[in-house]
Amino acid sequence: MILIKDAFVNGKRQDILIEGNKIKKIGEVKKEEIENAEIIDGKNKIAIPGLINTHTHIPMTLFRGVADDLPLMEWLNNYIWPMEAKLNEEIVYWGTLLGCIEMVRSGTTTFNDMYFFLEGIAKAVDESGMRAVLAYGMIDLFDEEKREKEIKNAEKYINYINSLNNSRIMPALGPHAPYTCSKELLMEVNSLAKKYNVPIHIHMNETLDEIKMVKEKTGMEPFVYLNSFGFFDGVRVITAHCVHLTDEEIKIMKEKNINVSHNPISNLKLASGIAPIPKLLNEGINITLGTDGCGSNNNLNLFEEIKVSAILHKGVNLNPTVVKAETAFNFATKNGAKALNIKAGEIKEGYLADIVLINLDKPYLYPKENIMSHLVYAFNGFVDDVIIDGNIVMRDGKILTVDEEKVYEKAEEMYEILRS
Ligand SMILES: O=c1[nH]cnc2c1ncn2[C@@H]1O[C@H](CO)[C@@H](O)[C@H]1O
Ligand SMILES: [Zn+2]
Fold it and tell me: ipTM of the assembly?
């Protein structure tokens, strides 16, 4: 049991009692209700639900800063893909641990990932104590032999993740995008998603170039094309980016209950564009937030996405009322939980105990009122305590699950292999 005593939670001072991996009670907890509970003094702290990052390529922490100021296709073809050819389970393991440390330190408790070498990723996630949905990133480049290999791999990894029997680590399918995956592969992904009851995580409509490629090949916009062969039917889908969309595509997204992972910083940095978030919100489409990988962000601090998503659309629409503070905060919490189908993203009785505490004694959090506003517009993301699945992962700024110094040392060593 863990008791967070007297924290500022859901608008007032209350206790939070955690039993097992769930929130047992919120309110006043009496002495008789706790046996041997570990007590965290929350007096000067606020408690928020752990943030949920819905689009990452977590081992890409090791690609931070290696290829800046480039457009997507050049970035992928000339820099990222050649370096990724050198990856192995060990490199990916250390890169993932580095990413987990960064996410925990900035208040993220769950991430939705798409990458390769999932055994290394899963091992690191398990050790770090984080919660993650892991998809094997499939790319067949319209080649039949590659397609068969990718499908085999995807199935192998779903079975592998399931065999871990760890409720914090869930499998998904990650076809990279309609410009790198054949129709046959995408159709197979839809059937596998139904067969294994796992979600699909895919890049959609990130750049004008890629949309042009899809249109030249198929005569249709990407969402229209995928919808034409039932890709969205009977499955839960999280689409990353969704920057350039036609009205017809938005209609499909609404009809098919698509979950959008909005990645404003990656989209700005790669000069991909700005997603029409207010328009999607008006249609009632579920908007969540993602950082994307550290090759295009270049960090995993989701508080930056919260702030950028709250201010960017005001500026673009010349309207300060689109994406209000709480709306942006919900993108990173409640909405993310909905997209990933986990009982988290809110501090509520019966919900998963994924809780972040922030010490209010920080210059940028004074005066101590209007906390929601501070979290969105003033905070820099350095949190103090992190509880995931009922376990204390960070306490007073110290990570308890991994040896940080060792990870930093290894990250440098792995980077040397990648750049050589
Ligand atoms: O923003 C992006 N758009 C397209 N591909 C990306 C982006 N960021 C990373 N990757 C690439 O996606 C694959 C994982 O399945 C990796 O090759 C990764 O480099
Ligand atoms: Zn991506």
Answer: 0.96
